[in-house]
Amino acid sequence: MAAPVDLLLSRRHALQCLAGGAAWLAGVAPGVAGEARIAGLIDAAKALPTVGQRIDFIAGALRGAKYRAYTLIGGPKRPEKFVVREDGFDCVTFCETVLAAAISRDIGEFETSLRTIRYHNGIVTWRERNHYFFEWSQHNIDNGLCRAVTMDGAVNLEKSVYWHRALGRRRFSMTVIPRATFLTNKAQLASGDIIGFVTQRPNLDYFHIGFVAFGTDGELLLRHASRSRHRVVDERMERFAAKNRVRYVTLLRARERDDCDDVRLFVPALAETAALSVHAAAALPSAFTSAV
Prior knowledge:
Shape: globular
CATH topology: putative xylanase like fold
CATH superfamily: putative xylanase like domain
Number of helices: 8
Number of domains: 1
CATH architecture: Roll
Structural class: alpha+beta
Strand content: 15-25%
Distance between the termini: 15 Å
Order of helices and strands: HHHEEHHHEEEHEEEEHE
Number of strands: 10
Radius of gyration: 18 Å
C-alpha cells in the first residue's frame, strides 16, 4: 500500500466554474463571473427543504472545479484581504464556499456568511483567520452555524499544534471517531456532513476535509477538492480512508438558520466590505494545504 499523503491543509477561497451539465441544472451558463455562478446556485437550491440537501446540491454542481492552493492574501506582517475566488479552491475553501452558499438567501448574505465561517467573529485579519480546522470547527459551532456529530465509541485525543511561530503553540482536546466506528455507522450520517480527517503528524490537527455524500446505490462517498486529482471529485470513502491510513475523523452538521435563535453572522465594517476577485496572487499558506 502506498504511504498516505499527510496534508498540511491551507486556507484560500474559491469560486470555480461549473461543469456544463451542473451549470445548466443551476440555470447558470459556464463562463459567467464567479459570484453570478454562486448566486445562481443559491437561487436554484432555495427549493430544497434542508441545509444538508442544499450543501449536497451545490457541492455536486461544483464537481470538476479545479484545485487551486495558496489563494488567501495576508500574513503576520501583511494585511489580510477578504478574497472571493472564481477559478479554483482547496479542500477548505471548497467547504467554506459551499456552506456559505447553502445557508444564504442571496449573494450579499453569502459574503457575510463566508466571512463568519472563515474568520473568528467575522474579523478579516490574519490572526483571526481559522488556521487550524479544530478552531474552524469550534468557532462555527460557537456561532451557531454547525453542530458536532459524534458516535458511540468516540474517544478523546490530545493535540499540540505548532504550524507557525507567529501563532504560538496551541493545545486542545478533540473528541474523535475511530475509522472502523465511522464506516460501520453509515446510517447516522447525512449528505452534506462536513468530515475532518485527523492527522498523525505531531504538530498539526487535520490533514484534509470534505463532505459526506452518497452514490445512487447508497455507497458512502467523500466529495472533496483533491490536490492529487487536480479538481473536485467524488471518491469512495472506504478507499480514501484506507489509502491515507486514516485513524480518526470528526463530523460537523450544518444547522438551519431559521431554526436557530443563536446563529451569529458578523457584518464587516465598511472598510472590509469589498471582496476581491483575484486570479493570481502570492499568498502565505495557512495550516492547511491539501495534498490528497
